[in-house]
Amino acid sequence: MTRLTLPLLIGALILSGCGRFGDSGWNPLGWGPGTTTAPQSIVPEGGYAASADLRPAVPQILGADWQPLPEGRLLVLRGFGPVKGYHSAALVTARPQPGDALAPDADGVLRLRFVAVPPAAGSPAAALPASPATDTITVALPLSFVQLSQISAIEIAGAGGTVTLRR
């Protein structure tokens, strides 16, 4: 036992003398929890970029409803544009969020924008009036039960108004 104690004691004394007042990483006195500095937040310094989605809102929202899924619900929206040729429709968050996160605001309401790209001004599709029977713009957003548990309502904004769905 004394054979093992003496070398361990000498090793500890040598290591504790490394560096001055905890300057060295080998010094056991500097191994406390206060030696590392972690960032206070994961938010970038300038904040998240403003909504990078510059697509205009769909002119008119025709309807919104829920469809059941095995792991949650599917939010289905139908909109309408005055002319044919709207494309690249999507539901985007009203406030910028990291990645594809769908977190509600502090009041529990998830605010979305219903956007789509209209046809180019000089294109033939821009001159043709749209028919509500055939030219509806439809998008869907799957929400899991975990996401729905944090949401009390969903508010979808279009150019012509806002639709609110309660859970």
Concise description?
This protein is α+β, with helices and mostly antiparallel strands and 167 residues long. It contains three helices and seven strands, in the order αββββαβαββ.
Roughly how many Å is the radius of gyration?
A: 29 Å
Instruction: Quickly count the domains.
Output: 2
Which regions are unreliable across 5 or more consecutive residues at pLDDT < 50? none
The profile of the biggest β sheet is: 4 strands, mixed
Question: Could you give the order of the helices and strands?
Answer: HEEEEHEHEE
Instruction: Report mean pLDDT, rounded to a whole number.
Output: 83
Number of DSSP helical runs? 3
Strand content: 25-35%
Helix content: 10-25%
Apparent shape: elongated
Helix-strand category: alpha+beta
Total strands: the figure is 7
Terminal residue distance? 70 Å
The neighbouring-strand order within the major sheet is 3-4-6-7
Structural description of this entry:
This protein has 167 residues and is of the alpha+beta class. The protein has 2 domains: 2-30, no CATH class; 60-166, no CATH class. It is built from 3 helices and 7 strands, in the order αββββαβαββ. The strands form 2 sheets. It has a 4-stranded mixed β-sheet, with no helix packed on it. It has a 3-stranded antiparallel β-sheet with strand order 1-2-5. A hairpin with a 4-residue loop joins β6 (153-157) and β7 (162-166). The radius of gyration is 29 Å and the shape is elongated. The model has no long low-confidence stretch (mean pLDDT 83).
Secondary structure layout plus pairing:
Layout: H1 2-16, E1 60-69, E2 72-80, E3 87-93, E4 109-117, H2 124-127, E5 136-144, H3 145-149, E6 153-157, E7 162-166
Parallel strand pairs: 4-6
Antiparallel strand pairs: 1-2, 2-5, 3-4, 6-7
